Sequence to fold (410 residues):
Amino acid sequence: MTRKPGLCEAEGNTTNQLQTEQEHINKNLEHVRHKILVLSGKGGVGKSTIAANLAVSLSLANKRVGLLDIDIHGPSIPKILNLEGRVIQVLGETMLPVQIGPDLKVMSIGFLLRDSDDAVIWRGPMKNQVIKQFLKDVKWGSLDFLIVDSPPGTGDEPLSIVQLLGDADGAIIVTTPQQLALSDVRKSISFCRNLNMPVLGVLENMSGFVCPKCGEQTDIFSLGGGQDMARQLGIHFLGRIPIDPQIVQACDTGQPYVSNDRRNETAKAFSQVTQHVLMLENQGKTEKVNVNQKGARKMRIAIPVVEGKLSQHFGHCETFVIVDTDGDSRKVLNRKDLTPPRHEPGVLPTWLHGEGVNVIIAGGMGQRAQQLFAQNQIEVVVGAPAESPESLVSAYLNNTLQAGENICDH
Fold:
């Protein structure tokens, strides 16, 4: 006669199983340097579009990237990346993610459905189990970044991924400007804080529509709500992405927006988000910092200066002012003035990276230069006014820096 396990014994077996599964997850992800979640408080804000374009942008910056879609009921990543119909290869108990080029790996529940129109009708435990499988059994290998596209809200899937990842670098919160969306986003931020998950920043999507014919901007969903909320909560504001018909077309055709060379406000916004994420490369695993606020880390900020004020053309300045700031007090620790090397392509980003700079505030800067700074893990702020370095640094640290037009966008 087979003996049934008692209650305590059954609980012990369950605990041991959970510990074993977590150990397998940790082992499988041990060569993933940075883990980032893309969250939203409500659906329809463009979260999957942001996640996909961020992953592609990072891969274009020569980073090894994984994109994990855990939106079980509405996986969008296969459509956005033109991967519908792709079949996952299984080797024993290991699944191989879909490979795009040399540097991007993708996994989604959409690859496991017989038909893209099939509905997944699962309760929480089954969803939790498949997320575990994606983390434990998918062969991610060595990655610089793992981007996780999570479904909207604060339910089973976001809770599972936060708990299973354990040491994620943080979350990017996507919102639209109207108050209804902002109310739900506040819940996402509260969710992160309750789980000790750093918030890397808030991104305001669908922020105004610029007519492609006349150039007039119409604020369909109002404007600036995400930035105001970020300032109130002490969270970094990552920028605004306008309503752009080219993004819609890119998603429908499966051609990521950022994969083409564009020089407009939308491209600048995506570039700014990518640069902020690349800054994580400056942070070692042994000394992670909380980037919920600019005030939670020390920064070294570079400002190109002519006659004591910011130079509108960063490559033709007389001096670079390098400012060290204390994040806790948001004060300047020290300043040094350096004479830059001769301005040639790629020289200044490499030089400033060697000086330990992680932010540059500039008046104008071309797209290629911005990409070179991003590759050197330096965040770029463009369109700053011609003011003194002290006032610019103070405004940046307090989220009051008013950035205008990038006068050197070429």
